[in-house]
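Try this one yourself first.
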C-alpha cells in the first residue's frame, strides 16, 4: 500500500511539473519579439553618437587651452582637477596616434545645451519608438450569446403506479423448545468398594460446628439427603453426588440450624466405587477437602482404619480406584 501511494505521488509531481513547463513555454511563445530584443541600448548608443549626449543629457567635456597655459603650465591639485575631464583627456591622448593640433589662444567657455532642449528633441523619438512597439491587446468581448446559458430542461417526475400487493398473512414459525437434557439415569449398581477418610480433632479437643459450617460452604458442600452434607458435580450444588460427609459420632447426622451449639470429635468423608464422573478426579477433590477441613479446624487426616495418612496409603487408594475402573 505504501509503494502504491509513493507511485501515485511521483506521477502527480511529474504531471504538475509538466503543466508548469508547458505554461511557461506557451507564454514565451506568445510573447512578441519586440519584448525579447530591447532596442533601447542601440537607440541610446546612436543618440549619443549623433548628438553627443547620453540619456541623462550630459555631453562630452571640451578642453580648451589658454596661451598662458602653453607658456607656463599651471599645476593643478588632484582635489581641484575634474575627474571627468581628466579621464576624457587621458583617453584622447591614449587613443590618438597623431599630435593634436593647436587650438586658438583665446579661452572659450564650454557651452552647455539646456536639458529641456535635449528632452524636447528626444521626445518625438521616444514617442515614435513606443508607438512602433506598442502592442494592442484586444480585450475579450463577451457577447450576449455567450452569456446566455441554455436552460436545463426540467425533468418531470414520472410516477409509475406500483402494483398493489395483496396482504399476505405471515404465520409465525412454531417455536421449538429445546428438549430438556436427560439426566444420566445409568444405574451404578451395588457399590463394590468405599473409600473413607476421617478428620478428627486432636486429643482432648473437639471440632466446633460454628467453624465447620462456613468451611463446608466454602468447599461447595450442600446439606441434603440423610441429613448429611454432599459434594455434587456442580459447585452450585446440582448434579450427581460425588462423595458425602457424615458425623463420626452416632447417629452420624447434622442439624444446620443448631451448628453453633454443635461439636463433635470428628467427621468422615466417603466415596463409593463405581461413581459418577472420573473416580480419580473425585478422590482428589475429597482428599483436598479433608486436608482443608483439618487445617481450618486444627484436626488430623486419617485413613479408613483411623490410621495416620501417609503417601503409601494414598497410593493404595489409587490402586483400589484403578481396580474398579
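Now uncover the answer:
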Amino acid at each position: 500500500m505504501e509503494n502504491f501511494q509513493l507511485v501515485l505521488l511521483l506521477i502527480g509531481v511529474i504531471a504538475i511539473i509538466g503543466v508548469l513547463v508547458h505554461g511557461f513555454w506557451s507564454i514565451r511563445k506568445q510573447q512578441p519579439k519586440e519584448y525579447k530584443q530591447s532596442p533601447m541600448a542601440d537607440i541610446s548608443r546612436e543618440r549619443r553618437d549623433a548628438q553627443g549626449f547620453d540619456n541623462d543629457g550630459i555631453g562630452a567635456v571640451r578642453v580648451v587651452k589658454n596661451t598662458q597655459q602653453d607658456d607656463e603650465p599651471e599645476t593643478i591639485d588632484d582635489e581641484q582637477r575634474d575627474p571627468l575631464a581628466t579621464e576624457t583627456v587621458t583617453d584622447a591622448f591614449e587613443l590618438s596616434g597623431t599630435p593634436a593640433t593647436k587650438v586658438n589662444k583665446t579661452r572659450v567657455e564650454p557651452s552647455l545645451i539646456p536639458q529641456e532642449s535635449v528632452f524636447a528633441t528626444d521626445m518625438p523619438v521616444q514617442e515614435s519608438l513606443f508607438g512602433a512597439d506598442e502592442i494592442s491587446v484586444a480585450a475579450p468581448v463577451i457577447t450576449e450569446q455567450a452569456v446566455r446559458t441554455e436552460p436545463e430542461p426540467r425533468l418531470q417526475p414520472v410516477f409509475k403506479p406500483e402494483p398493489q400487493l395483496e396482504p399476505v398473512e405471515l404465520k409465525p414459525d412454531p417455536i421449538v423448545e429445546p428438549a430438556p437434557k436427560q439426566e444420566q439415569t445409568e444405574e451404578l449398581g451395588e457399590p463394590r468398594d468405599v473409600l473413607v477418610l476421617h478428620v478428627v480433632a486432636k486429643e482432648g479437643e473437639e471440632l466446633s460446628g460454628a467453624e465447620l459450617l462456613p468451611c463446608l460452604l466454602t468447599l461447595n458442600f450442600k446439606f441434603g439427603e440423610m441429613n448429611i452434607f454432599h459434594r455434587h458435580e456442580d459447585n452450585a450444588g446440582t448434579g450427581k453426588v460425588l462423595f458425602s460427609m457424615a458425623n463420626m459420632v452416632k447417629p452420624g447426622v447434622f442439624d444446620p440450624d443448631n451448628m453453633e451449639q454443635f461439636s463433635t470429635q470428628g467427621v468422615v468423608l466417603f466415596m463409593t466405587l463405581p461413581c459418577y464422573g472420573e473416580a480419580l478426579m473425585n478422590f482428589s477433590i475429597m482428599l483436598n477437602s479433608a486436608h482443608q477441613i483439618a487445617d481450618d479446624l486444627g484436626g488430623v487426616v486419617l485413613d479408613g482404619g483411623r490410621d495416620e495418612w501417609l503417601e503409601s496409603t494414598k497410593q493404595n487408594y489409587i490402586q483400589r480406584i484403578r481396580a474398579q475402573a
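Discussion: The CA atoms of residues 157 and 163 lie 18 Å apart. Confidence is low (pLDDT under 50) at residues 67-101, 115-137, 180-184.
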